[in-house]
Structure formats: C-alpha cells, structure tokens
Specification:
This protein is mainly β. The protein has no helices and 8 strands. About 5% of the residues have low confidence.
Length: about 170
C-alpha cells in the first residue's frame, strides 16, 4: 500500500484579486421605512469608499441619498422626503472563488428634509436628524481582479431596510 501526494486547490485564494487596499463603490439604493406613524418606500443612489486589510476586515464610509415620494403620515399628505444616510462600517469579508460574502456593523446618522401639504392648501417644511446602528450582509461577485458587483441588505435602527446593488472597483 502506497501513498500518492495530492495537491488540493485552494478555493479561498485562487484569484489575483487584491486582498488589501482601497476601493470605491457606486450603488442603486431601494429603501423602505416602516414605523407606527410612517410607512413609505423610496430609491436613490449611494457612494462608498473603503480600505480592506489582508485579514478580511474592512473599514468603509457610505453615503446613501434616497428620495421618498407621496407619503401619508398621520393623515397629512407629504409630497416628499429627501434623506442623506451616512455611516461608518466595520466589515468582515470571506472569499470563495469569485464570491466574497460579508457582514457589516455600522454606526451613522440620517438627515431628512420633509415637505408637508395640508388639506387646506397650506404647507410647511422641516428637517430632522438621527443617529443609530445598522447591520447588514451581502456579497461581492468578482468579474475581474479589480472589478466586482455588490448586492447588499442593510437594516438601520430606525426601522429602515435598504437593498443596494452596484459596481465596486479595487485599486
């Protein structure tokens, strides 16, 4: 009985994708807010910049700009809410061939601009802001060593759910 050496394929690192360095991302963002007093959805765009370390950890800044339209809030017709949501994340990302799943833990703030129109024709506008935590998960799919496509679900502490997708470029 003899032994034959076998060379196993390393599924975690069989690509030349940079494991450490800066990256930029753009995204289309679809959002839903569901609270006792407000139920609405909207869409917009996002931008992210981050740095990934060799051990799979990343630090990322993200800014999402979302527009919500035609909202009924306690019987008051709101013609629009524009929101800027920015957060700083720590992410842990694995690598399995071309798939790179990750989890996100974030802290950030939101700034909302709202216009309300009342039944008598009068209107008012105001802004508000809040800070909170977010958690999320997603995956990158690497098309080339530097270019991937990201799909992500994030839940914010103020009962907001966000689905985003878009390209990521690694330097």
């Amino acid at each position: 009985m003899g032994f034959t050496p076998v060379i196993a394929e390393d599924r975690m690192s069989n690509r030349n994708t940079p494991t450490q360095g800066f990256y930029l991302g753009l995204s289309y963002v679809d959002s839903e807010i569901d609270t006792d007093s407000l139920d609405t959805s909207g869409d917009g765009e996002g931008f992210s910049i981050g740095y990934r370390f060799n051990n799979g950890l990343s630090v990322e800044y993200t800014l999402n700009q979302i527009d919500y339209d035609d909202i009924n809030h306690f019987g008051t017709q709101i013609t629009g809410i524009e929101g800027d949501f920015q957060f700083l994340s720590i992410m842990y990302q694995g690598r399995f061939d071309k798939w790179e799943p990750y989890i996100r833990f974030a802290y950030g703030d939101s700034d909302l601009e709202e216009v309300q129109i009342y039944t008598d024709g009068s209107s008012r506008s105001f802004s508000s802001g809040d800070t909170g935590y977010a958690t999320g998960f997603g995956t990158d799919y690497a098309f080339t060593d530097n270019f991937s496509f990201r799909l992500e679900y994030t839940f914010y502490s103020e009962n907001q759910e966000v689905l985003s997708l878009g390209p990521v470029y690694r330097f």
